[in-house]
Amino acid sequence: MDISNTEITIRLVLALVLGGLIGLERESHGRPAGFRTHILVCVGSALVMLVSAYAFQELDTGRPGGYDPGRIAAQVISGIGFLGAGTIMREGANIRGLTTAASLWTVAGIGLTIGAGFYFPAFMATLLVVATLILLNRVEWTYLTSKQELLRVQTQDSPGQLAKVFSIMAKHDVNVHNVVLYSETEGEAAVEMAVELHAKANRVQILDELVSTSGINRASFK
After folding, report:
1. pTM of the full predicted structure?
2. Where does a domain end: 96, 124, 144?
């Protein structure tokens, strides 16, 4: 089955558009693999699929074990791993870039789908990927992701005050990191700590409980 130059152009341009849509979302978040990278991956995958499906048709003898149009294209799925691995970075105990690596792998699949001429699955996959990256990101940040902030508490410089602060943090399931003590005016001390608040933590309630505790003068998030 031959393919016209017009059809080839349509498929490559469509790969550019759909890959670019996903790349725009990644670019807006400052990810290392953004707009142009996703376009190149999608267009390249579509090109490989076109070559695999149409460039060697004369080699198809119709015999079992003969020419397989999916053999070359199949290498894209495994080969794209080196790009995905380059976007994954470790920062302390956290790992960043997994979503971008997954989006690159998915864009490669979309490119192969377009190259094979399956337009509807390519459109639907792009729509679902963009919706996942934009809409579910907001849901995850609002309801699931912990947020780290700096809490400053000024207390009386007396035994047991730090234990009271930690008790309130534990009550609200707040993780505490990097506690630093400062000596303020005579008889007063300040505590600064990095706190990790879960998505449903009530910041106002935490501050109210702190300032209503005996010996604690002021509390604020920075």
Report:
1. 0.61
2. 144
In the chain, the number of structural domains is 2
Residue whose entry in the numeric block shows the structure tokens 């630093």: 180
Residues 122 and 207 in one domain: no
- The CA-atom distances, in angstroms, between 161 and each of 31, 60, 87, 173, 189 are 43, 81, 45, 19, 10
Per-residue pLDDT of the chain (222 residues; tens, 9 = 90+): 678 999 999 999 999 999 999 988 888 877 767 889 899 999 999 999 998 888 776 665 555 555 676 777 788 877 887 777 777 776 554 567 788 888 999 999 999 999 999 999 999 999 999 988 888 776 765 665 556 778 889 888 888 888 888 888 888 888 887 888 877 677 788 888 888 876 667 878 888 888 898 888 888 887
CATH number of the domain to which 158 belongs = 3.30.70.260
Domain boundary among 144, 167, 194: 144
Contacts of 81 (CB under 8 A, 6+ apart): 105
Query: Range of 131's domain?
Result: 5-144
Record the tokens describing residue 126, joined without a space.
């792009």
The angle formed by the CA atoms of residues 12, 15 and 17, to the nearest 5 degrees, is 115
DSSP string, 178-222: EEEEEE-STTEEEEEEEEEE-TT--HHHHHHHHHTSTTEEEEEE-
E strands present in 67-214? 89-91, 94-96, 147-156, 175-183, 188-197
